[in-house]
Amino acid sequence: MSTASSAPPPAVSAVEDERLAGPPEQPSRPRTARAGWFTPYALLTPALVVLVVITGWPLLQLLIMSFQKFGRAQVFGAPPEFVGVGNYIDVLTDPEFWQVLGRSLAFAAVCVVSTMALGILVALLMKRLGAVLRTLVSVGLLLAWAMPPLSATIVWGWIFDTQYGVLNHVLANWLGLDFAGHSWLIEPLSFFFVAAVIIVWGAIPFVAFTVYAGLTQVPDEVLEAAQLDGAGGVKRFRLVVVPFIRPILIIVTILQIIWDLRVFTQIYALQSIGGLAEQTNTLGVYIYRVSLGSGDFGAGGAISVIVVLLLVAISIFYVRNTVKEDSL
Question: Where would you find the membrane-spanning parts of this chain (predicted)?
Fold first, then answer.
């Protein structure tokens, strides 16, 4: 008995043909702007307006003043005289400016290195402490961070006081060292030691909290694997922890450089207590003394613009690293 091959039903054949043909082509739509593209710009506009009004306009006025002969007479209504780049030439050919710039860079380098090293150590300590001790350390750091710079400088000035300072008393009476009546602010080196102590003490909490937040994101499995491979604590930190928190370390370091280069309150307050201004000026105090002290606002504006350009160069490096890390 012979059997003839039966053809598939028409409905099944139609479904099979449609499957092989693929999905039907959609009618082309005109390309339009992505929905909500304007929202980020609308949210940023108020902040940009405030930034331009509060920062941009004074910077423009400062730039204009740096090209003028602007003294006390101009403050009381006399018209300023345009001198072009004369103020910049005077500043850049002044040996005192280069001394202050070099002093400020060296002082900022010492403060940044000390702050980063101590802040990282405090963050590592907080990572190993229990909840109760970590809370106590955090409260202490917050209190140090919340204290205004001027108040902190006055308190530290009492500690280093020549006649009644606690430090001289401990060094002379407890340790038997020749520090009775020692003046910490009369010599530039010891002056900047005191200033560095105050600045580093106030900056450690920010570094410690920021680095501690980064340490909490390091996977414990990776650290345990490195420990099983025989890596010690220092090696684990250098080869495992640092690569994970490198973006945080870069950002915090650059911010510290910017803040320490433009420090003013601590230096000026210590000079008022008893320091020698001529040998201990930094950029912030130098601008203040040139502008308000001698009344040469044009030269002070030129120095300020130079400092702004220096800080902008550092800020560009900071922004580039931030954008690079966000794109990864």
Answer: 38-60, 105-125, 137-159, 191-215, 236-259, 297-319
